[in-house]
Amino acid sequence: MHHIDLQPRASQYRNISRYLHFLSALMILFLILISSTTQGAVIQNDETRIIRIIRIEGIDRIEKELILSELLSREGERLSADNVEADRRHLNRLGIFRSVEISERIDAEGAVLTITVVPRGRYLPLVDMGSSDGNSFSLGGGIQSSDLFGGGLIFSGSARTGGENRLQIQLENPKFRSSLLDFQFSLQGINRFNDLDKFREGSVHTEFRLSRRLSENLHAGGLMGWVCLNSNRPDITLSRTRTDQIPELGFFLDYDDRNKMVIANKGWNNEIQVSRHGLSGISESAYWELTLDFRRYQPLTERHGLFLSALSRTRTGNIGQEVPVHQYFHLGGTNTVRGWHRDSGRGKNEFIGTAEYRYRVMEPKKVLTGRFGDSVFIGLELSLFADAGKAWGNSRGPGNDRFMSGYGIGLKLLMPFVNVIRLEFAFGEPGEGIFPCFAVTPKAEKQRERIR
């Protein structure tokens, strides 16, 4: 009589159960936040107040006319706290102003709104530095512009070297309410040794997104992309030439009502994306991918807040057949599930959840004088965090499909000029101690990238 070992199956069911319980708990938290009330606008609704004058300070006449055309608040109409809050959020998120303040003054004839903005410099140097779970620290620089050639385009271009050699370019138009379409273009060229999958990589990744505003905070659009990746090992790529060409087509729905684009502390940033990777006759790759990315920034008091995120990516096909090996998701390390060794989990699908309690020790403030100082701000934030995640599907190698969780404490330098510098200490993997983590990009953004 054959003996049937039920232990692996029971262990698998326990892992799935933990994953479902964590996902359910996270969704309950999201629902609670949706139904809860957040901090309201300073300006209160009053049906008796009419906006008599809107004053714009800090910019010249032409830009004043542009701002006036972008406002929901209008002269001669009733004052609305909701409109004022939406205007403040909208102007902050355009990416062309360093700061936006809206104040109200009441006189006998009505309300006077004063909008004070501080423009970003047209051309400013850019510090480019970072590290990933597969490569050590790299450093470089570049240039950024909030008004490229006077055409109103937002541009950044940089290069860095060290743990990896990377050249990247990004170009987009500010998301004006009056714009018919919004676009984003990105290009990355990378040369490195991939320490997770153990091969020498040379790759170019380009993506173009085109979207249309459906409502104040909702956008829908399509994307086109292309990945060209060369490997020194034939078992990494699907192509016999050791160079994979992977075109991408997809569409997305994006809801974003954050109060700021960089270092936000209030609002939602959610995206649902469906994409097709590989086309018949062009690429050996052929798979679909569904991405669900939900992020909530919840203020509690002036300095205290919560951050919650849930990222799920699932794919059709099999690794080594329709999905190339270099598209594995690797979990563990600084930018996925902290408190675990990198590559503790791997697979063609992934789920990552994060909860952080944040305390703003110091708001970002100017530390240098002069024109260069207009972009050099430094703030400080403490955090307590917990991560959980799972990678599954066609896993092979050292990683597996177990459910992982970790927790720890962190310190963030808030630097709009660089973004965020994170120094964290995490626990999680059984039998291991403290895992130090260092990164230059917010985890919620970095975990969306292939190289993270």
Task: Break the fold down into its secondary structure elements and pairings.
Layout: H1 7-35, E1 51-57, H2 61-70, H3 81-93, E2 97-107, E3 110-119, E4 124-130, E5 138-148, E6 153-162, E7 165-172, E8 182-194, E9 199-213, E10 218-231, E11 243-256, E12 267-277, E13 287-299, E14 304-315, E15 329-331, E16 345-347, E17 349-366, E18 377-392, E19 404-415, E20 419-427, E21 435-439, H4 443-446
Parallel strand pairs: 1-3
Antiparallel strand pairs: 2-3, 4-5, 5-6, 6-7, 7-8, 8-9, 9-10, 10-11, 11-12, 12-13, 13-14, 14-17, 15-16, 17-18, 18-19, 19-20, 20-21
Task: Describe what this molecule looks like in 3D.
The protein starts with 6 loop residues before the first helix and ends in a 6-residue tail after the last helix. Residues 1-10 and 34-42 have low confidence and may be disordered. 34% of the residues are buried. With 452 residues, the chain is mainly β. The chain has 4 helices and 21 strands. The protein has a 16-stranded antiparallel beta sheet with strand order 4-5-6-7-8-9-10-11-12-13-14-17-18-19-20-21, with helices on one face. The radius of gyration is 24 Å and the shape is globular.
Number of helices: 4
Molecular shape: globular
**What percent of residues are in strands?**
over 45%
In spatial order, strands of the major sheet run 4-5-6-7-8-9-10-11-12-13-14-17-18-19-20-21
The residue fraction in helices comes out at 10-25%
Radius of gyration, CA atoms, in whole angstroms: 24 Å
Helix-strand makeup class: mainly beta
**How far is the N terminus from the C terminus?**
50 Å
Unreliable segments of 5+ consecutive residues: 1-10, 34-42
The chain-level mean pLDDT equals 87
Biggest sheet, in brief? 16 strands, antiparallel
State the total count of DSSP E strands.
Answer: 21
What is the ordering of alpha helices and beta strands?
HEHHEEEEEEEEEEEEEEEEEEEEH
